[in-house]
Amino acid sequence: MVVWWVQRPTTNTEVVVPQQLWAGIDAGKSEHHCVVVDGDGARVLSRRVANDEATLGELINAVTTLADGGDLTWAIDLAGGGAALLITLLLDASQRLLYIPGRSVYYASGSYRGDAKSDAKDAAIIADQARMRRDLQPLRPGDEITVELRILTARRADLVADRTRAINRLRAQLLEYFPALERAFDYSNSKAALILLTGYQTPDALRRAGAARLVAWLQKRKARNADAVAAAAIEAAHAQHTVLPGQDLAADMVARVAQEVINLDTEIASTEMMIEERFRRHRHAEIILSMPGFGFILGAEFLAATGGDMSAFDSADRLAGICGLAPVPRDSGRISGNLKRPRRYHRRLLRTCYLAAQSAARTDPASRAYYDRKRAEGKHHRQAILALARRRLNVLWAMLRDHMPYETSTATAA
Predict the structure, then answer these.
(1) How does residue 333 score in pLDDT terms, banded at 50, 70 and 90?
(2) CA distance linking residue 23 with residue 130, whole number of Å
(3) Strand 96-99 vs strand 137-138: parallel, antiparallel, or unpaired?
């Protein structure tokens, strides 16, 4: 509590002014640093705390006691990960919590005195930015399904990235000793070719097996198009008779990586089943699926990125700004009217909206007509898809706000 004494001609009058504080948290894995600033930006508390429930509870009590009933705003530079426990404790305590991205903290630090970097300085910058800025997004508790979708979609993204890396390693390894077999199949889309590589990886092994035996071996393992796969593999084997150095070890590595890709495919399929089951239980599932271009994967990613609560966004424009679909001006001097994409936006959310728009441009007549109109205006494919994604986001935001399914007439008029 801050007490100001005002000198009057006859008596001293005590005027109590409520304290207004901002608490900035520089979040870490094992420890967080908290700095609290007042309305003038002066530090009134600086404390490092362990990422432990009891310790974090003590910090929250200390800061709320310091505010003494006045306005208190918290800000943090992580929206999950090591900050998840602290975020949950703050939201459970009904504290106002803002999110400021780490990138914003990095750029803002250049305007503060000194080149040194410390957790205390970063926390102070976070608090000061929360004090001055009015565009920071508040963090809200997500419902159970949305939180689970966030976990599952992140897991699926990791698995897909691992699969892509494994396919690239597989092709690079094959190219070193058996280039004919490397170019014979599209290993990203042919499970039968991957099954083949778990048993046969060298030209001489394929030639010894022969087409008939190879077909039977593939059919026993339920490989599709066994005849065509066997024929392509035998043709590749007859195209190369030279044994390159390291062939045996490289073949063993190819077999291991091929099995790794098959295992990843199984895990991806299992994860997608869990995503679909949870997504279809969400209250917005049917509305999102009614919009062309959105399947359960993209719908789940949209819910995971937005929290599924459109009340968190004041307008479709606000959502578009977070998504990166609202261009910002790039004017200077006499040059005006130039627009560019903002540097700070949710990249996964933009990817989701872009892919959904790209799919809709192929399958939905209204979306295709809008895309063709943008192309006729001189925009290239990517610009036209982004314009379509922006238009569709307006419609989707209104659909979720009003809890109404997609209607072509409404979408066309929007």
Answers:
(1) low
(2) 8
(3) antiparallel
Segment 386-402, tens digit of pLDDT: 999 999 999 999 999 88
Nearest-angstrom CA–CA distance, 232 and 353: 39
Radius of gyration for the chain, computed over Cα atoms and rounded to the nearest angstrom: 29
What separation, in Å, do the N-terminal and C-terminal C-alpha atoms of the chain show? 52
User: Which residues does 30 contact at the CB level (< 8 Å), separation at least 6?
Assistant: 50, 51, 82
Contact predicate 189/340, CB 8 Å: no
Q: How far apart are CA 145 and CA 350, in angstroms?
A: 21
Q: What is the largest CA-CA distance in the chain?
A: 112
Q: 3-state SS string over 44-90?
A: EEEEEEECCHHHHHHHHHHHHHHHCCCCEEEEECCCCHHHHHHHHHH
Instruction: List the beta bridge partners of residue 3.
Output: 16
Complete edge-to-edge strand list for the sheet that includes strand 31-37: 43-50, 31-37, 21-26, 72-76, 96-99, 137-138
Q: Residue 245 pLDDT > 90, yes or no? A: yes
